[in-house]
């Protein structure tokens, strides 16, 4: 119980209570490991190297000229707008330097993930001093001119952002949106047994939900076949404008929290640089030794266990090494140090002088040689070549990526003699079929260490459990007798399930960005949980396309199943197909949406997605039984075109149609076909053309999307003067949005999901949304008044009746009528 | 270190290791509190009441007739489709019954939050037996017929879903999407000092990110002015198809984890019902006593502190009381018990018999009287009236909601003598102005215990810090000397900041659903983090509109600031205005989007939002300096209409315009005005009409949205035959989507954000997106070719040049040209 938390009892600076001394980075240095591993010479070199990085951080924030202060600082040397963050720079640089020392000493294979994000200068400065930045960007050379360009480009129009953006060598984690550092790090070390991900976690970031649960990733890491993650929880103390929770709870609580998450925490806390160097040097070495020890034990014995992996709690002042106070207000050690520490340098003489004095206090003239390059003595400190963390090839994952080994999926073709009638159960359940064939028989078998399947506890519920025939779910925790009874768990599995969409997605992103392949499966409605992550990943890829040295990585493949139209008891909360709208906002260069109508199309689409790179592929495919339409040859042709006429369902051959019936999506395609059949049976004189769309962006004009179609191509399918009834899987207006520029769009009637669902049988849900066969046929008749005159009245009346009686049947029995569940294409 | 986790070392049932015994609910009952508070009679009654609830759970899953098994069970009594969940029913009912006992004994004011969601029958059965369900739904009466209807409606078309849906009395938390139980519970008890939220947390749910960080909510709860939350972490052991993490880590780890989160955990673990009753009875009583003790201590002393509030770890078998094995496979205690436990009852005689035997084992004939009502002896157990947790008025928050006390916002009017020229800084920064006036001077002052402001560490960054003039940020943790230097922290604050959008949103939802008011402010891009939560809240409200007894609750108000157009150094990751697309997918009855162009409009919009109920209001207003356009009278008129012509910016008076220039959003309105001014200066003969849209849904046809406009109203502004240049705050296609049905829409050119951002000055970012003044003027000229002929060529050339030179200026200097930053309306 803390009784001393009321504001009335806040002590002055000199009166810190014992409690407060533990929250504050000031006061005596504290460290779990008490060793003095550094001799005076090494200590001195580390300090000077550290100072060089901090000097560069300030240069990035403030200077556009006079980069080494070889002349007195003048106002015109300053950038006119000061942008960027200082707050966590020192702590991150400090951590990086110490781990680099270990990389060299133990010949490690490591890279860094910067969770705080807004402290990018702390790491970028290191990458420059290691030489990697100049190797990648020769005009940011290691001399005065290069340094000046390096400074100016930072947070400047046409330059680079203040995060670890895709332009930054060594980065696979931007950190613009917070919360994913640990899941990205784990994703990158799965199946990379030699790699250690040094992962700096911000104490602001640590308050996010995604980060808070991602600590549990350690339960899914196999010490034999995977690498290791060394988290450094950086207790800077403050966020933008608030103290952080983890920096202000009792340290005992914090240690328990980390132990509770299954880690072994080591504390390094203080502000005295010399003492902190000794403490950090001893601590990182202990951590590295423990990691190597556990790996050796597991690998030599062949026995898998879950070690209590080490992690570091680093408590250092926010804005460390800045002036403690400016104009009587706290700077270092307070949230004022978060962003640009001296914001008034342009107009305030005192701040201007303070900046110059501060920068000179790092003694740049002793750190850089005549040419403007770091002096050789310090240049010798970091590791060399690809051992430099910023040059680790996995951080340019495309450079080590090998294409998936895929066999010809055509051998798994579903035999379809007559479209719309094939229904052999194991065939017709096409999610299951896909996984049995493409995933299990080919991918999992042929790519045993470069493909994983991710899902939030839904792989089986999504009917993908056939995958367990070849691999199990990773589980590094305890086992109970019940698990043997169909639990499908193993320490070496390639299916990863945790009830956190955030963690699954983060793992997958880390896994693909570091050069491998994967697939995330999710209930359709809950994919919205990671809207923001997918947005950020798409932005990462978009930017990578502009970065010439970034090699292409595998696409992020998202399979949405358990879709809106068949949620049964799950009801209204589980009905939201709007993820497609979120995806469609991203760059056309990056996003793809596929709605395969049947099993052969799904196989063709998945094969394409698995071969593709640098996309976010969203595939929507319901998990339930479906009628099959196309044989493999037709399916491949159809998917390759992306959309097309289904002649077998059309009766406008050789003539202009009266009506186009179209659909994109599986359940809605069946309803649109059933509507077509009803119309043809009731009004045989009508000429109806049936169009199916697999690749949604085909609807867009080719000017706006690389998959878009020309006006001629579009009109060849949809006409530009006939009514189009379009049954769409998702919210209907997405189709309008994609086609609003098309000639004849005012004749297009789109049906889809509107917020009118509930617990429903599939047909009844469609009826509520007017996306059912009867409604489609009715609207078709209504839109054909000029053609049909009064001829459609009888048919219309019958359709209205059938519609009502279907609904009533569902309300009474809880079932769809058999005409629906057993429906087949009747011609 | 756990060396016994390999699958080869899984023991048989009888060989549970000591370790495993702690993961398993079987074996000896374990409890932190070892007391035997129940006498034989009470034990017996609790058991029978518990059995009655479990009988009802099975009835909901299986039966449509013969509800009390007064005749032998026949196949036709069964529901044809079996939907619903059994897994956590028993544990949830058990918890509820025991806490009800405490409510009665200590005369508590409590309600329940059901986190696992899919175990709704466990609680709904209690609500029925308490009589509340029948009071709310008289045809679900407490007799045989009512019970039959109660059973049939569950998970049935036209009935209620399998979660704690809005139709469920006593529920403010549906639990369809997992992760928000704790944040909702805290939201509901803030400023409700007498209330205790019994919060059952599923161990599946506990793996989600939002839940994992929401445990930290205890750092924001004031024991004097707020109520309490008693979490019961229900270790069922399994999710849908996997063990849960928290049920399989060492119990020592789990206890540390909870202690690390700042709670005091009490364990209750076992499967023997009699022992479990004693353990749970003793434990809940201890917890209640501790809660009351801490509250008394704080309230009597007036000293605020953060107690280590109690919480319960309840480990009971999944599907508790079901058969342990069916057909040789584990059912109880395994994931097979998650959903319908005997899925084959329709066709499998053995399962059919087993079901009847199982249901009869609860002895319904002894629990219900002739009429079909729970026998009086058991009926006497729960508390009475509104003390029943399902009848707590806060769970129908609208019933206790009082409108915010709002003064007339017109008194805070910004004086605007001449539109587009007023720029007094404190006035022009309208986010700051809004908060200084409406929020601080009125709302915070007049509503000291029913309004809170929520934000993820961004209230100050979003320039809303004037609020600290009247209230501070809640902080129940330690204080350091630095905090006195502008930290704005207090134990009794009304601003709630945690770097978790999920937690902030969850708190706000709980706060409004329990009858109060609030506002969430967020950076625009990161609101996508809670897309899914907002979706679910909108669905909750949508459904509430159909539930007659649910009184209206305050709208969920979301203020998006730090918007896409002014992200400075934050760059590409911080540029995403697509939340509006997500919102626009929800029911027109529920969602509203406002884009006030200036300060007086913002005041008017906010006043409206704060008075409104049952909406999700999204308000987009940039935090930076802005030119003011409308005096208060005009602003109110403009906002009331929702969109309108700005005559002072138009020169088509009395004539048909050649062109309509339109805008929705603040930054883009300024650019559209500047484009209008450029055109009028360069081509004075052009007749331009300027239209501003505040209420986005005004664009829709009135048939599709209650705020929509008729064809005539729309055409009166936009014409139906003239080019419209529309500058939009967000992705441009949203405007197309809202207007695709409008006559003349093919003449509409929309500009907005496309994924082309970076680190930019505001104008340069607009230029990249062709949403800048020059681009708008150029496209206007291009679309007026038929009117202008060659007359526009010179102007066009000049505009192209100016556009390029503005971009170059930004690249060179990092600034926008002064003509831009100092721009005013020139006429």
Automatic annotation (TrEMBL), chains A, B:
Listed GO molecular functions? aldehyde-lyase activity
Is-annotated flag, keyword Lyase?
yes
* UniProt family annotation: Belongs to the XFP family.
HAMAP family linked to this entry: Phosphoketolase (MF_01403)
Q: Which superkingdom?
A: Eukaryota
This protein's cofactor list reads:
thiamine diphosphate
> What NCBIfam families does this protein's entry cite?
PRK05261.1-2, PRK05261.1-4
Q: Which residues form the Xylulose 5-phosphate/Fructose 6-phosphate phosphoketolase C-terminal domain?
A: 623-825
**What are the UniProt keywords, alphabetically?**
Lyase, Thiamine pyrophosphate
User: Does the record's keyword annotation contain S-adenosyl-L-methionine?
Assistant: no
Query: What are the residue boundaries of the Xylulose 5-phosphate/Fructose 6-phosphate phosphoketolase N-terminal domain, all occurrences included?
Result: 39-399
What Pfam families does UniProt report for this protein, alphabetically? XFP, XFP_C, XFP_N
Gene Ontology BP annotations: carbohydrate metabolic process
Q: Which SUPFAM superfamilies match?
A: Thiamin diphosphate-binding fold (THDP-binding)
Name of the protein in its database record: Phosphoketolase
